[in-house]
Amino acid sequence: FKLLELVPKNNAVMAVGEKVYIGKNPELRTKILSVKRRISYRDLTHAAENELPFILESIINDRKSYFVDFFNNAQPINARMHSLELLPGLGNKTMWSIVEERKKKKFESFEDLVERVKTLHNPQKMIAARIVEELSDRSQKHRLFVSQ
Known about the structure:
The protein is mainly alpha-helical. The protein is built from five helices and two strands, in the order ββααααα.
């Protein structure tokens, strides 16, 4: 994930959370004139900071298979820490429950994950919270979802 400042076209009307094309093909860019720059979390307005977790949850739900694969394939970072433990609210016991359950059978969906791991309630919110953490704290040593 990256935060970008976009320059809209003159007559473009956009809603909060709307997906817009920013690729190289100018014919497909119906609402965006150009990408101005990459911005940091500190550059966001207060309203944008408040909307970000909801937008991230929407993106996570649109790309479910990618994020379910994260739970299926997450590996230890070192001898003492697992990458699953970096998710806010996910502790050692829940991490081991996930690891044991995925050994039996890979998770197929978030619903399957929540059903089989009883101590896990809303993985989408956990992932969104981790992404916000990574975006807001540039000094994070371990990054799961945000590029440098």
